[in-house]
Write a structure and sequence with these properties.
The chain is mainly beta. The chain has 1 helix and 5 strands; from the N terminus they run E-E-E-E-H-E. It has a 5-stranded antiparallel beta sheet with strand order 4-3-2-1-5. It is elongated and about 40 Å long.
């Protein structure tokens, strides 16, 4: 049985610790890591709102389609 390759926590365009700005709303977010959605193993970002400190999950392809712009890249060690 072949399993899809699991996403590495930092293999996406946006690295953990990066600060992103949502183009449409202007909201600021901090990338936590890249994970996999359980139902289909699709790579997805886990990120935190810097305003409300809520955590969100968004598919990698959607996150990297131009909705967000990189502000800084402070790598969390």
């Amino acid at each position: 049985m072949n399993r899809p390759k699991m996403a590495a926590a930092d293999e996406g365009l946006f690295k953990p610790g990066s600060t992103l700005k949502h183009i449409k709303t202007g909201g600021l977010y901090k990338v936590v890591l890249l994970a996999n959605i359980e139902a289909n193993l699709e790579p997805a970002y886990v990120y935190e709102s810097m305003q409300t400190h809520d955590f969100w999950i968004r598919p990698k392809l959607e996150m990297e389609d131009g909705r967000f712009t990189l502000i800084t890249e402070n790598i969390v060690k």
